[in-house]
Please model this.
Amino acid sequence: MDTPAVDLTKYIETRFFGERPHVRGRRITVAQLAYSMRSQNWMPQELAFQFGLTEAQVLAALLYYEEHKAVIDKLEEAEQLLMDEMARKYARP
Model:
């Protein structure tokens, strides 16, 4: 039996950045936190310190990422492709 998803709307929203989820009221995406945790090997306390968030905000974002990983990774991949295209198109020689 699947565990029902936790309602994280108190901490996570998609008002900015199109559909990319981020910490409510902040311009810090869920992916930034999840990827920083992985690449920097940071614990939630360090993420909270580095990004100026509460531990509750970080933990909510990490849980949201785990519950929506495939969708978030796909959104981030599309965003990176867009940024790469913009860099090619508008980069100064």
Notes: The chain has a mean pLDDT of 93.
